[in-house]
Design goal:
Radius of gyration: 19 Å
Largest sheet: 11 strands, mixed
CATH topology of the largest domain: D-Maltodextrin-Binding Protein, domain 2
Distance between the termini: 21 Å
Order of helices and strands: HEEEHEHEEEEHEHEHEEHHE
Shape: elongated
Structural class: alpha/beta
Length: 253
């Protein structure tokens, strides 16, 4: 357990907001292979995100129950049903309508896979008329693209494998994804390359339900202390994750 600054004092209000059933229920996105890197013999998720949830539960002094979701959009949708108390997914404005997010504790670079002979040199070259970009719908990087791509066409598919198939089978111009995933795909899909740079860095954060102001303040303090104390770095090292970076300490934290 981390040594605790005053901001991490657990009050009855915080405990009621984060563990109203007496157990911390943590929503986990199974599709993020950087944050969920394996399963236990009983099929529970293993990785940086489950360990962060465990650290929060330990600090609160309550048991942890992981609530897995096959995609981040499903986890975000479930906020209105309150089947989880904290959700560990990318912080995005659309999701923030129902979820109060901490600042990021880790970041993941997102970029494009393109055909080797494509004219594109930078990520900004892709936002042009006639360009078609395959993307897994409702991922954090898709939500960013929806807000920021103005001229290119986004070709949405459910899940990354389907988006990759659309890119290959339809010979689309680009496949958008997290760089660590594309490092594998560039080896598997002949005649492709990865664009240098990033179009965004996905901010993986800890969220709770809107209206849980005491809980949101606590999670912000916890996230920042986890960065400063070295906990986040130690979890990345423990799970041997490449392509995941410790987020910078928030300026106002």
């Amino acid at each position: 357990m981390m040594s605790s600054p005053a901001a991490l004092t657990v009050t009855p209000e915080i405990l009621q907001q984060l563990a109203p059933t007496g157990v911390l229920r943590a929503g986990i996105n199974l599709s993020n292979f950087l944050l969920v890197t394996g399963r236990t013999p009983t099929d529970d998720p293993v990785g940086v995100a489950p360990d962060m949830a465990q650290a929060i539960a330990d600090h609160l002094g309550v048991a942890l129950r992981l609530v897995p979701f096959d995609a981040p959009g499903l986890l975000a949708d479930a906020a209105v049903d309150k089947v989880w108390d904290i959700g560990l997914i990318g912080a995005e404005p659309k999701r923030a309508e129902h979820i109060a997010f901490s600042t990021a504790y880790v970041e993941i670079e997102a970029t494009y896979l393109v055909w080797e002979d494509a004219r594109f040199k930078t990520v900004s070259d892709l936002d042009a008329p006639g360009v078609r970009i395959a993307v897994s719908e409702r991922t954090a990087y898709d939500l960013w693209l929806v807000r920021n791509i103005h001229a290119a066409e986004l070709v949405h598919r459910q899940g990354f494998d389907a988006a990759k198939a659309a890119f290959v089978d339809g010979h689309l111009d680009a496949l958008a994804c997290l760089r660590p995933a594309l490092l594998k795909d560039v080896q598997e899909i002949a005649g492709t390359r990865i664009i240098d740079g990033q179009f965004t860095a996905i901010q993986q954060a800890i969220g709770t339900h809107r209206g849980n102001e005491a809980a949101a303040t606590f999670l912000q303090a916890f996230s920042q202390h986890a960065i400063r104390s070295g906990l986040v770095a130690s979890l990345i090292a423990k799970h041997h994750v490449q392509g995941l970076s410790v987020a910078p300490v928030a300026a106002l934290a």
